[in-house]
Amino acid sequence: MRSASRRALAGAVAVGLTMTAFTSIATAGGRDHRPDPGDGGKGKVVASELNSPRHLTAAPNGDLYVAEAGTGGEDCVVLSEAGPIFGDDENLLLCGSYDPLEHPEWFEIRLGETGSVTKISRKGGQHRVVTGLPSVDLGGGESTGPSDVAIKGNKLMVTIGLGADPASRDLMVELFDNETYADLATVQEVRFKGKNRVKIREFADLAQFETESNPHPDNLDTNPNAIVADKKGGWLVTDAGGNAVLKLSKRGNVSLVGVPPGGMAEAPPFLGLPPGTPIPFEPVPTAAERGPDGAIYVSLLTGFPFPVDGSIIWRIDRHGNMTEWATGLTNVTDLTWAKGKLYAVQLSNNGLLSEDLTGSLVQVRKGKSTHKVIADDLFAPYGVTVHKDYAYVTTGAVVPGGGEVVRFDLDRHKRR
């Protein structure tokens, strides 16, 4: 018989990312990413066959590290909007054991330990240096799991996403008796202990912080996304589910930097509202980084209905005051400062409701609503990092086995 606690948790488990499901693409194997004159502005693929790559970072020596959300796994649960579906025997309904035509409102998620971090050597070649991290496949290639990786010395900091009420994490641990799922919605510290050994420990629990503080109080939701070493010590993290920019101390203590404001957008026609009716959308912060002036800059994906030109780069000063720094962007998933310039990735130039995952890398102009395009026609781009005169962008971010890292020559754009 199901326990009362399990039934209470079940109502919180029907989860979804802020993105829709996407189609797969095929790619080739890894490649050398040392600089060469052949990029021609079109970009050069330096890694491929990645499982839903999200954010990435460059080590001081030029090696790249990419967070891969993974492909889910064998643990499967049937969900409805109300939570997990149980059969007549009071056990979880087995995936594939029902007629989807009779229950179109049901869907399946699959959990496993397929999340990872891939290292792309500056000398060429790629291999996964961290494996066995939790991953949730929501179907159609849509997944959550490792979202970003930051490097400092001999350790990596890895954010693990969730995209749901923190209580759903506890339910997944209970349903499948797998403590690995307790790492969802956390920051994990990875230390390298020799050539083939790593030590992983929990550094910060963002689900616990969301449960206790809930800085954006509309509902409980947590989805740790980007992490970066803060120039003033500790780490900056964005929680795209909790709509919060957070600071982690060197000991892993979590504090709030701020909650960017959302906005209003015209309701899409399929909602059946009168034409022109405005509806609110959530901010959904995706990345935060301290700029050369000491302020923190934050990018927004924006929540439903994901308005075109609705993403803003917010500047947070040392007093916590937020001001618009740039506008006119769409569904921004990452940003980074390099040599005094700010670069951002747009996941979908035409907005996620268009179901067109053609995105771009842009150089953001202060106070402007139009921006310099560095690379366009990118399929589902997500993360960006810069090393020397090259920008590296993850693409195919929602494609298990079909993701890539593409390099672009920024020096070429300086000469244009």
Automatic annotation (TrEMBL):
Assigned keywords, A-Z: Signal
Family matches, as SUPFAM superfamilies: NHL repeat
Renumbered residue ranges of the record's region Disordered: 27-46
InterPro entries noted in UniProt: ScyD/ScyE-like, WD40/YVTN_repeat-like_dom_sf
Extent of the signal sequence: 1-28
Entry annotated with the keyword Signal: yes
Compositionally biased region (Basic and acidic residues): 30-42
The keyword Transmembrane helix belongs to this UniProt entry's keyword annotation: no
NCBIfam families named in the record: ScyE_fam (NF033206)
Protein name: ScyD/ScyE family protein
